[in-house]
Structures are given as structure tokens and as C-alpha cells.
């Protein structure tokens, strides 16, 4: 069974600091998504990582994928309060020609002014 | 372009009642997925449907839960005889095709509260 784990589960950081969120998954997958969710809201797509070594950046967020290590990272540079949210990774599982997303546990980020 | 639409956004039911959640996919998308999110947890896959077919229902509880995606109209997730443990946010997502892996687009969710 494909399992997806994120750490840390909770992260409180000061504005201006850097930090990394980790997403580990248990079986082979070559596609990984990162989402942001604000309280009471739906999921906002941040990144799609399609291949080993993929790196994508948008503003203060940068995501990378290492399929050999089954690890993705979401790096936050010089955090600002607006980045406070819960971040999820999701790994694609393909079975008998169909696919579904398996979500990580989420990392709740709070950026303190 | 309208994204995935879900209604109602909030639903309150008493124990034993039925809850009916609706999802209209992105126009042109023929594949719908339902997920459940319990408080403080990630999304858990429930069911994957194409028009008039259930493709994968491995995440659906065996009893009280059912889903459909008729030829015309929205996809419906139905929960019969709701219990307090059914209180959660239910998200619908849609994608355009099954060939290859396509990104799913998520709706705003329906937050079900069972009293």
C-alpha cells in the first residue's frame, strides 16, 4: 500500500527565515503534486513534479523531486506571514490503468511576524 | 471558465438523516473523484467515477455511502443514516481524460456537520 508521510506536521517559524518541508512516499511514483490549503478552503495547486530531479520555483517556494529516494521537498525562503497555510503533497498511484492521488498528512505552517 | 462546483457548501444533518452532496465537474471533464477530509487530516480517496460508471470505489465505506455520475447532471455522493463520524469536508475533483495521468482540479468542498 502506498503511504505518503510529511514532516514536520506543524511548523512555526519567524518571518524572514528559511525552512524545508519533506514528503516521503513508500512505493514507486514519478509524479508528485504540492498543494496549499487555507482554513476552510479548497486546495490550491502549487507545483507538479513529473520526473526525477525536477525542480520548480514560484516566488518564495521551491519544490524538488528525487524519485530514487522517494522524496520531495518544499523549501520556503524568507518566509512571510501570507505563506501561513497547510501544505500537502500528493503522490499518484496507478492501478490497472486508472490512477488516484494519495495525500500526505499535511504540514501546518504558521509564520510569525 | 467555471471550475469544479460543489453544493451545498455547508450541510447540517441530524443523526439518521440522509446527506446528498453534488459535484459539477469542469466543463468537458468526464472523470470525477471524491475525497474526504477529517479535521486536522489530509484528503482520503473515496471513489472515482466516469459517466455512468464507478471505476474505483476502494476508499468508500461498505455501508451507507454511495456515489453516482449520471449521463446528465452532477455527480452525487449520498450518505444514508449519517452518524457523527461522518462530519468532515468532502471534496470533489475532476480531470479530462483517463489516458495518461492528468491533473485533478478540486472544488471548494462541502462541509458536513452531523449533530
Helix percent band of chain B: under 10%
Query: Averaging pLDDT over every residue of chain B, what do you get?
Result: 91
Terminal Cα span of chain B: 36 Å
- Strand residues, percent of chain A: over 45%
What is this structure's SSE topology?
The complex is a heterodimer of chains A (113) and B (115).
Chain A lengths: L3 E4 L2 E5 L4 E7 L6 E6 L5 E7 L5 E4 L2 E6 L4 E6 L8 E11 L2 E6 L3 E6 L1
Parallel strand pairs in A: 2-11
Antiparallel strand pairs in A: 1-3, 3-8, 4-5, 4-9, 6-7, 7-8, 9-10, 9-11
Chain B lengths: L4 E3 L2 E4 L5 E6 L6 E7 L5 E8 L2 E4 L8 E4 L6 E5 L8 E8 L9 E2 L3 E5 L1
Parallel strand pairs in B: 2-11
Antiparallel strand pairs in B: 1-3, 3-8, 4-5, 4-9, 5-6, 7-8, 9-10, 9-11
Describe, in plain words, how this protein is organized in 3D.
The complex is a heterodimer of chains A (113) and B (115). Chain A is mainly beta and 113 residues long. Helix content of chain A is 0%, strand content 60%. In chain A, a hairpin with a 2-residue loop joins strand 9 and strand 10 (98-103). The mean pLDDT of chain A is 91. With 115 residues, chain B is mainly beta. The model of chain B has no long low-confidence stretch (mean pLDDT 91). Chain A binds chain B through residues 31, 33, 40-43, 45, 48, 88, 90, 92, 94-95, 97-106, and chain B through 33, 35, 41-45, 48, 55-56, 91, 98, 101, 103-109, 111.
Summarize the structure.
Chain A is mainly β and 113 residues long. Chain A contains no helices and 11 strands. Chain B is an all-beta fold and 115 residues long.
Key descriptive features of the protein:
heterodimer; A: 113 residues; mainly beta; 5-stranded antiparallel sheet; 60% strand; B: 115 residues; 7-stranded mixed sheet; 4-stranded antiparallel sheet; 11 strands; 0% helix; 49% strand
Amino acid at each position: 500500500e502506498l503511504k505518503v508521510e510529511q514532516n514536520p506536521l506543524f511548523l512555526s517559524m519567524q518571518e524572514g527565515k528559511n525552512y524545508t518541508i519533506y514528503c516521503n512516499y513508500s512505493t514507486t511514483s514519478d509524479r508528485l503534486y504540492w498543494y496549499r490549503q487555507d482554513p476552510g478552503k479548497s486546495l490550491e495547486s502549487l507545483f507538479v513534479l513529473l520526473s526525477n530531479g525536477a525542480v520548480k520555483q514560484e516566488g518564495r517556494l521551491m519544490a524538488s523531486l528525487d524519485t530514487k529516494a522517494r522524496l520531495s521537498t518544499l523549501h520556503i525562503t524568507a518566509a512571510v506571514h501570507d505563506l501561513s497555510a497547510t501544505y500537502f503533497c500528493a503522490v499518484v498511484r496507478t492501478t490497472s490503468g486508472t490512477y488516484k492521488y494519495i495525500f500526505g498528512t499535511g504540514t501546518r505552517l504558521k509564520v510569525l511576524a | 471558465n467555471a471550475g469544479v462546483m460543489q453544493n451545498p457548501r455547508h450541510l447540517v444533518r441530524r443523526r439518521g438523516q440522509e446527506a446528498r452532496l453534488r459535484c459539477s465537474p469542469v466543463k468537458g471533464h468526464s472523470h470525477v473523484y471524491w475525497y474526504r477530509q477529517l479535521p486536522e487530516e489530509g484528503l482520503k480517496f473515496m471513489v472515482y467515477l466516469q459517466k455512468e460508471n464507478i471505476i474505483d470505489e476502494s476508499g468508500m465505506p461498505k455501508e451507507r455511502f454511495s456515489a453516482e455520475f449520471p449521463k446528465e447532471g452532477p455527480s452525487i455522493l449520498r450518505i444514508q443514516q449519517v452518524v457523527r463520524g461522518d462530519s468532515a469536508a468532502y471534496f470533489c475533483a475532476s480531470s479530462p481524460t483517463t489516458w495518461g495521468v492528468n491533473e485533478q482540479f478540486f472544488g471548494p468542498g462541502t462541509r458536513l456537520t452531523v449533530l
